[in-house]
Amino acid sequence: MTACSFANTGAEANEGAIKLARKWGKVNKGGAYEIITFDHSFHGRTLATMSASGKPGWDTMYAPQVPGFPKADLNDIASVEALITDKTVAVMLEPVQGEGGVIPADPVFMQALRKLTRERGLLLIVDEVQAGMGRTGTLFAYEHSGIEPDIMTLGKGIGGGVPLAALLATESVACFEPGEQGGTYNGNPLMTAVGVAVIKRLTSEGFLESVLARGEYLKKRLLELSAKHGLKGERGSGLLRALILDDERGPAIVQAALTMEPQGVLLNSPRPNLLRFMPALNVSEAEIDQMIDALDILLKK
Ligand SMILES: Cc1ncc(COP(=O)(O)O)c(C=O)c1O
Asked: Do 267 and 142 share a domain, yes or no?
């Protein structure tokens, strides 16, 4: 990726990706503007990114939606192919659906998607806001599939807690003219300095290997917990994982965890039948153990 435009939030970076794809379609593909996205995907809370998202209920919440986002099924290449028309300009997906319940896109699917988009002259946009920046043990989650996207967005981890996000594109796709994308705070020196510090740490020797190792440890401990409580296993990639429950008590567990003694635990249940785990990338095994002990208590019926 050779062109980069900084933003303040993941949604803003994705809004930029949508605009860039539409502009590219205007210049190169006779005004094609539709971007195929996926059921259960999540791309942000602006009107266009909500319309791109496949979160149930979001299509009616602030209706009418921004048009041009037909939805395919993740890991089903035929469902993507069936939606391609002469209006299609791009396909956009999260390499691991985060809010949708930690559902990884299969590497075989990612490769098929790259092949299909190349054959049909479409852009491939990866939303790495949640899964990128080392979260899955590689710098970017798409690397697990060995593909290269045309456009990528980053957020969350890139700022290590401060508002920083980025829109990246290959040189041939980066067709914005000056002034078409930006904002008062975009690319400000304070936040981008934080981003530089984050990148230095992520790419320091052994850091990503340690994320992979901690991810394996978290996986092992979650599987033990699942076996002990008769749950339905776990899934995920690196330090983005979910424990699959045997019922829909996720939100109740999240509430109970907040008031635990002597220390509350901050949990998250993006779907009622699962708990999602996104610990700090430098989490220790002792901290994972502490959380597993708390979950062990919370899971007793
Ligand atoms: C995959 C993905 N894209 C976009 C966003 C939106 O990012 P932000 O909340 O910074 O606008 C999120 C936030 O959860 C996300 O998970």
From this structure: no
User: Taking 80 as the threshold, does the pLDDT of residue 79 lie above it?
Assistant: yes
Taking the C-alpha atoms of residue 144 and residue 110, their distance in angstroms, rounded to an integer, is 9
Nearest to 35 by CA among 89, 75, 96, 116: 89
Our mutation pick for probing the ligand 1 site, out of 18, 42, 74, counting the most ligand atoms within 8 A of Cβ, is 42
Task: State how many domains the chain has.
Answer: 2
* Residue whose tokens read 């785990």: 277
Last residue of some domain: 202, 226, 251? 202
Calculate the average pLDDT of the chain. 97
Domain end (from 173, 202, 231): 202
Same domain, 128 and 220: no
CATH number at residue 150: 3.40.640.10
Domain that holds residue 126: 3-202
For residue 49, the ligand 1 atom closest to its alpha carbon is 4
> What CATH number did the domain enclosing 250 receive?
3.90.1150.10
Question: CA angle at residue 215 from 38 to 298, to 5 degrees?
Answer: 85
Question: Which residues are within 8 A (CB) of 64 and not within 5 positions of it... i.e. 6 or more apart?
Answer: none
Calculate how far, in angstroms, residue 227's C-alpha sits from the geometric centre of ligand 1.
32
Domain match, 49 and 161 both: yes
Q: Does ligand 1 come within 6 angstroms of the Cβ of 10?
A: yes
DSSP string for 47-73: HHHHHH---TTHHHHTPSPPS---EE-
pTM over 0.90: yes
In which band, very low, low, confident or very high, does the pLDDT at 274 lie, cut at 50, 70 and 90? very high
> Which residue is listed with tokens 């979260």?
135
